[in-house]
Amino acid sequence: MSNSASGMAVCDECKLKFLELKAKRSFRFIVFKINEKVQQVVVDRLGQPGESYEDFTACLPADECRYAVFDFDFVTDENCQKSKIFFISWAPDTSRVRSKMLYASSKDRFKRELDGIQVELQATDPSEMSMDIVKARAL
Q1: Residues ≥6 apart with Cβ < 8 Å to 88
Q2: Distance CA 38, CA 25 (A)
Q3: Helix, coil or strand: residue 52
Q4: Is the pLDDT of residue 5 over 90?
Q5: How many angstroms from the chain centroid is the CA of residue 99?
Q6: Fold held by 9-138
Q7: How far is Cα 43 from Cα 68, in angstroms, rounded to an integer?
Q8: pLDDT tens, 14-59?
Q9: Cα dihedral 26/70/105/109 (nearest 10)
């Protein structure tokens, strides 16, 4: 069950909540964190459907790593309403080196557990996941 590189298991709740976001659109975003005590990736925060991208970015800690998925709605140049699920790996420069290494080594396995991710972003600073960047990556 655990990843040989980092030993992190993925809590079932992570997969269940992701499926709810993907299939039922129950959440706008989900923030995940690694709980080192139990060696598991767990749900840190669920964003309600009415919450914005700003609400999402505001809940990411300034000095701790996180994983997140964000359901991004947008309108194409052809005026089509679309949605893409982003996987965001948040590793601010101010976070501990050990934490950054742990998140980096666990990311690929965790991402594989979440079937349906369409775009991946890695950010070490809020400017690296600005709305302009998200829009550009979605199109």
Answers
A1: 67, 68, 69, 70, 120, 121, 122, 123, 129
A2: 29
A3: coil
A4: no
A5: 16
A6: Severin (3.40.20)
A7: 9
A8: 999 999 999 999 999 999 999 999 999 999 999 999 999 999 999 9
A9: 50
Close Cβ partners of 62 (under 8 Å, ≥ 6 residues apart): 92, 94
Q: Are 53 and 126 in contact (CB under 8 A)?
A: no
Query: Can you tell me which residue has the tokens 């991208």?
Result: 53
> CA nearest 111: which of 78, 138, 86?
86
- Which has the closest alpha carbon to 85: 19, 3, 2, 13? 19
Residue extents of the structural domains in the chain: 9-138
The pLDDT tens digits for 92-139 are 999 999 999 999 999 999 999 999 999 999 999 999 999 999 999 998
Integer Cα distance of 44 and 114 in angstroms = 16
Q: Enter the tokens of residue 11.
A: 């809590």
Alpha-carbon distance 139 to 105, whole Å?
29
Averaged pLDDT for residues 82-98: 96
